[in-house]
Fold:
Amino acid sequence: MTEYLIRRLLQSVLVIFLITIVTFLLIHAAPGGPTQVMLAPGLSPEAFEQQKRNMGLDQPIPVQYVRWIGDLLQGDLGYTFKNHLPVGDLLWPRIGNTLILMGAAWLLTLVIALPWGIYNSTKEYGLSDQTASFISYLGFAMPTFWFGILLQQWLSLGLDWFPLSDMHSRGKEGSIADLFMHLVLPVTVLSLGFLASYIKYARASMLEVLEQDYIRTARAKGVKERKVVFRHALRNALIPIITILGLDLPLLVGGAALTENVFNWPGMGRLYVEMATAREYSVLMAITIVTAVVVVLGSLLADILYAIVDPRVKLGGKGTKAA
Amino acid sequence: MSDMKVTISPRTSPDALTPEPNQAPKLKDTTAALPAKKPLGPWALLWKKFSHNPYAMTGLGVMLIFILAAIFAPWLTKYDPAKIDMMFPNLPAGAEGHLLGTDELGRDVFTRLLYSARVSLLIGFSVAFASVVIGSIIGALSGYFGGWIDTVFMRIVDVMNSVPTLFLNILVLAIFGSEIKYMIMILAFTSWMSIARLVRGNFLQLREMQYVEAARAIGVSNTGIIFRHLLRNSTFPIIVNATLMVGAAILSESALSYLGLGIQPPATSWGLMLSNAQEFMLVDKMQAVYPGLCILIVVLAVNFIGDGIRDALDPRQNINKSRGRLAKWRRNFSKSGN
Structure:
């Protein structure tokens, strides 16, 4: 287990390292490089060179990269070009807002999708099963932001049940009830997208387990069907779902740029789009790296959890025993 | 996670060609008809099964309509998609000869939908094609040669899968500018990985086959084996994957255009129309409905076609035995990894 962990961790570090290189090179490959944007326009050539030197942009690219990485490792994400604000101050509150939104959507999805998918696996091709399949087909083919716009038109502008956008109403920043009302529409949109896949995962995973020999044995020795499903099948069926949860973890942080934009939710995804239009490269780099780190950690976590929960998994390498 | 099941193409397994093993033989014809009938080729067999799938055929029909509409757009409408006419903004459907009305700048909505179809389909098909080329080459090299080549390429795939795709797309378009060619390039660059994995898996299986050994024994070059034998036997799974990719690319294009980083005015795209529509939601409700509906229908159609091809390739499928079409479709759908 330890050997596997170390190898997996080293791999993750390597992947993150490669991602930082790719991001850095991409930004420096931009026509005119970051220099053009970073420096104030209308400077005299001497002042231009001076400022370039001040910001370290006259150094060769590898040197700049090492400096940037060094700052990054010390937790310094850099400064915005405009106003010279620390990127971290901009980023962290946004991550919190995204976590609220995505966490709510994720919870709702799990609460609906798992029981529904499991129920469907016991009643294959029934009405409920077909409804679920219809939803997932729709969820895969529909642009989520369009669904959001339709909901805004119908439930917000039309019926006035929910606020149109933003996270708080003016003057009600502390109110939980107000926040809840603002959450309803974006969470609905996000959940539909998630539901499409999670019902399918839960159902497929259960079906696979229900075909196993030990389930037949349990049935043959007269265990009640209820007990077969909940005691014997469910616990094994949850294993692959844990993996998928781990792989989807980055969504919690990366957020849904689209949904946040539709509902004007001040999360990280919207920050990214705003900063992309403003060409604030240091913010873009920071967000890309933060998200990538979470992605890599998420898949690492999924692997580890999988190994812990499922004793059948032999972790590669010679002589390593299962957890 | 849920990689697509590798379907053995009919070419490699001749027993997959025997249709309907479960069906009770009709005593009259079988003996008489069989010797005279030429066995169907893989494409004909594929079509035979595909054409019995109502969802797939509907998808194909809808797709053809959209393709024809996109090609013949200038002949189907008398308006210019970018022509601003401030005399008649926000007309309702059917007014003043505008089939679906006009938008906030008096542009004909139907015309704009038609021209948007061009953009979406162009991007969808180009991205799928480019991904197939990149993915097949990398997958083929990895699967055929193995060793360090495989390790390097698969690490690259890992890295690519760890990069948040939408963020990378936005980043590149923000840096290089929102042009169609950059959009196609970055979308292809972020979506070839599934095809590379698929081709690699197929190659790992196929390269141990006896006919490959035979080909090598009679001196066929590596390139010959890769292209003539292995890649041809991976054709069908690649097609399925590529079809589904068309839909994904259309969705990505609309998302990027909606965010303002994709297609730029005066050009038009469904995503861009939606972003306009959201701004003028209070004035005209229907503007937001049409473009989204177009995206939904096209992507559904493409997905139906893709699923139809996959089902047609599945030797376990039996076209004549259907206990309820929907149930059958559900069964197929649930088997797929998508």
Summary: Chain B touches chain A through 51 residues (CB under 8 Å). Chain B has one domain: 66-311. Chain B has 15 helices and no strands.
